[in-house]
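ENTRY TYPE: paired fold submission
RECORD: A
CONTENT: sequence, then structure tokens
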Amino acid sequence: MDIERFFDAELAQHEEVAAATGAELAAPFRRLVDIAVASIKADGKLLFFGNGGSAADAQHLATELTVRYVDNRTAIAAIALTTDTSALSAIGNDLGFEYLFARQIEALGRAGDVAIGISTSGRSANVKLALRQAQDMGLTAAALTGSGGGELVGLADPLLMVPSTVTARIQEMHIMLGQMLCGAVEIELGLAEDPHS
């Protein structure tokens, strides 16, 4: 294996996907920021969820909001539905893995909240069911996914589809977009300065 060639190729692919993401996702990102800010201002909350690496992203982003992203400030209401091992194991065992997030949204979600599913493929059954549950309850059903959107097209709105079919690149863009969301929400709520102004 040529490690230097591998290193250069991975970076080049990352940069290509980042550029395409910038070109294609500005409008849905703006909509997600606006919806999230409106929800928080109305005493709503953001609920993040996904599987595997996406579960880690959900936890990461909820933490950035409840604690801080850039500056010490008022807490922002956000929950990762991927962290309560008792609830996750009980739901998985008693109801089925596909209900992992839908059941928690049923218990914790309120009309006006924002449910943000994360699925690189757009085919995760438990993410789809959770977004349907969110819609049924009057939450905004939003999602981050990869090229084509899988089965989230027509279900999540806004839907941020990273223009790539490579899982690693999609996941890299998801955490970047998620952190950008955290930063933009802080600024739009007047809790942080815009470092780019």
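RECORD: B
CONTENT: sequence, then structure tokens
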Amino acid sequence: MFKNRCAGVLLGLFLPLAAVQAAVVVDAKEARAIAKEAYVYGFPMEDSYRTMYAFSIAKGNPEYKGPFNSVLNIARVFTPEDKAFVTPNSDTPYTFLGLDLRAEPIVLTLPPIEKNRYYVFQMMDLYTFNFDYLGTRTTGNAGGNFLVAGPGWKGKAPQGITKVIRSETEMINVIGRTQLFDPGDLDKVKKIQAGYKVQPLSAFLGKPAPPALPEPDWIRPLSPADQRSSLEFFNVLNFALQFAPTHPSEKALRARFAKIGVEPGRHIDVAALAPDIKAAMQDGMADGQKAIDARRTALGGKIDTLFGTRAYMKNNDLDRAVGAQVGIGANSREEALYPIYEKDASGQPLDGSKGRYTLRFAKGQMPPVNAFWSLTMYGLPDQLLVKNELNRYLINSPMLPGLKPDADGGLTIYIQNESPGKDKEANWLPAPKGPFMLTMRYYLPKPELLSGQWKSPVVQVSP
């Protein structure tokens, strides 16, 4: 699994095929149940790994941004050409950091930022738990030096470190978002992004670096479609698990997974599986996806409980999996709320070939947020931004000065495939000629939004 194998690091990760096959010690019924559980558990990890692979490993990939432990600034908002993950926002230029914490901690330095500009750095481990945050809400806009350590680091914070952040996994995704007020503000955002810096702890301290660890022999992730059906899913999961030491609360779970060969670093020879076990594991994957789909439907677009720390999520693997499929990398509810619109007020799926729609904020009922709000269009089934003649993928609160209010002071957003007319075009959010979904984003929601006292308007069918 690694090049230049090192006995101390790799002990136990490379088992002969006989040992792997011996691990499948259950009958077909139990194999199906365990495969379902492992599929639900592992789906978010594989999505997380696929993003890392696209951004920092696959240099020939058009989504490649740069190596691990470097600042990957995207000095623009996302467009339909960005396809590495579903439901990206197009409000805030992103900064991505894929951090490899195996050898030593990494120090993330953030510059001071003006008080009225929202920014956030979301720390997401391989499980997709949002295990910590830096930015306006949590650490303020004064900046600082933040030490990010993996599960094996036992050191203490040296002088000059503002805060120590500890991850359960050795590889993590960090998602930075810097507010863009308008197109003319982009140069200021670029200047801020240029102040984001990462360096190994040894470099921060001016000391020699520890010995470099072997480069992992990276496994190619599955496509989103194959991830839902191919038994190679479990080999990709096994690869990712070697960067995720077993959490004490999951010892029994990991032991169950081992019964079908799901263990860190193992390789399952899918072709050599007994036919009944192979069929059972495929059925288990299908069962897991059915459970994810059912849970997503039951939520009715309310997804704020799907993202957070391990303690907040209470090891709810089903909700983690739904969260990954709705929009991996979404923030915890205190940072942002994301109501999803997939149906109109009458319960019919949204479809730009069949209808025209509106979403209206009544006078005095604009979203109560401390940062900003936005409504973004995504085509289905890919859940990506939609090409249109205006190159407009969202309507948000920074756009309010250019929007046309209703006669009574409210605000109506027109959601349809064709122009609603020149007099309404300022408020037009173009839809595709087919199924679509909308995501509302409320950044730094106020208490009345968090409590449910203020409710999002519904999408109405336009006559």
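NOTES ON RECORD B: The two ends are 60 Å apart (CA to CA). The longest strand covers residues 171-178.
STATUS: closed
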